[in-house]
Amino acid sequence: MGDSKRQRILMVSDFFYPNFGGVENHIYLLSQCLIKLGHKVVVMTHAYGNRSGVRYMTGGLKVYYVPWKPFLMQNTLPTFYGTLPIIRTILIREQISLVHGHQAFSTLCHEALMHARTMGYKVVFTDHSLYGFADVGSIHMNKDCHQKRLVYRKGADLLVEVIPEVCRMYPNVRFIVGGDGPKRVRLEEMREKHSLQDRVEMLGAVPHARVRSVLISGHIFLNSSLTEAFCIAILEAASCGLLTVSTRVGGVPEVLPDDMIVLAEPDPTDMVQAIKKAISILPMIDPQDMHNRMKKLYDWHDVAKRTEIVYDRALKCSNQSLLERLSRYLACGAWAGKLFCLVMIIDFLLWRLLQLWKPAEDIEVVPDIVLSHDED
């Protein structure tokens, strides 16, 4: 369905600029690098305020802000089939060969992947967070999944116990807390209770343009998350020359070399011990050397090349008929399997109806805009 040397990729997610976060950054930077590798990349997301329609970004990146308004935490209202006509039109107009969806909690992403599979397109899915569903505690934790900054999942309650103890042990230690959210009240109460107003600075929400200036004002970056897939904030801190202390959760232990990070269990006592260790080895840390090493460890061009390998593998997968797909859905459970099959059958029938109502030949194919790119 496409040339392996140059793919036409549709990135889909509810989370994209002008909203800001790790998912948004990932989609934008990966898209820019894929474009430089010669691929055509188009992004599809929902409208943000008055930003609706088609926009172009750096490098000729085309973005469809479809006229769907967010329902909750930047997620569109699940419609199952409401997005089928516009997704089909975009796939045909842009001559897409592969659909790449991002984030487990994006309804637009999942609907696009479902429709794309129904129409025979190859799809790739990237989950940007590791959420547990094995017990009630894990499910409760997921309720805070997309709120910013100071929330339960980010370990704000850990900080309430860790900060007073560290301040008691080290009179010359100061804490700078960036972020806002429902747990900020607890941190402020802790600061009042222990009379730490002059040693714990609460910055509130920090604009991304100020992140670097905030980071370089410190020596140790403390990440207290209770669940995390990657934590790009750790990379930002290490790039600014900070030694990291973090909870040993999710993919965090794989992010940095052992001499750049001190890991601890998500327990106040263990966190305090980790901070003690970090303070003891701080004199041996060279911020400039850490910055130079980080430049070699992570590179978006390398990420794009690895993503190309995933795309090639997806495109080589055999096509499945509707009956083959239905047999797989039936295996998902006694009731869930039948429900999934019903959803997919209706989706297939609606797609066929759209083909009769508006054949693909009647949808105008848009010309490609090819820009020259520097070698770097």
UniProtKB/TrEMBL annotation:
<keyword id="KW-0337">GPI-anchor biosynthesis</keyword>
<comment type="pathway">
    <text>Glycolipid biosynthesis; glycosylphosphatidylinositol-anchor biosynthesis.</text>
</comment>
<dbReference type="InterPro" id="IPR039507">
    <property type="entry name" value="PIG-A/GPI3"/>
</dbReference>
<dbReference type="InterPro" id="IPR001296">
    <property type="entry name" value="Glyco_trans_1"/>
</dbReference>
<dbReference type="GO" id="GO:0000506">
    <property type="term" value="C:glycosylphosphatidylinositol-N-acetylglucosaminyltransferase (GPI-GnT) complex"/>
</dbReference>
<dbReference type="GO" id="GO:0006506">
    <property type="term" value="P:GPI anchor biosynthetic process"/>
</dbReference>
<protein>
    <recommendedName>
        <fullName>phosphatidylinositol N-acetylglucosaminyltransferase</fullName>
        <ecNumber>2.4.1.198</ecNumber>
    </recommendedName>
</protein>
<keyword id="KW-0808">Transferase</keyword>
<feature type="domain" description="PIGA GPI anchor biosynthesis">
    <location>
        <begin position="46"/>
        <end position="135"/>
    </location>
</feature>
<dbReference type="Pfam" id="PF00534">
    <property type="entry name" value="Glycos_transf_1"/>
</dbReference>
<feature type="domain" description="Glycosyl transferase family 1">
    <location>
        <begin position="148"/>
        <end position="280"/>
    </location>
</feature>
<dbReference type="InterPro" id="IPR013234">
    <property type="entry name" value="PIGA_GPI_anchor_biosynthesis"/>
</dbReference>
<keyword id="KW-0328">Glycosyltransferase</keyword>
<dbReference type="Pfam" id="PF08288">
    <property type="entry name" value="PIGA"/>
</dbReference>
<dbReference type="GO" id="GO:0017176">
    <property type="term" value="F:phosphatidylinositol N-acetylglucosaminyltransferase activity"/>
</dbReference>
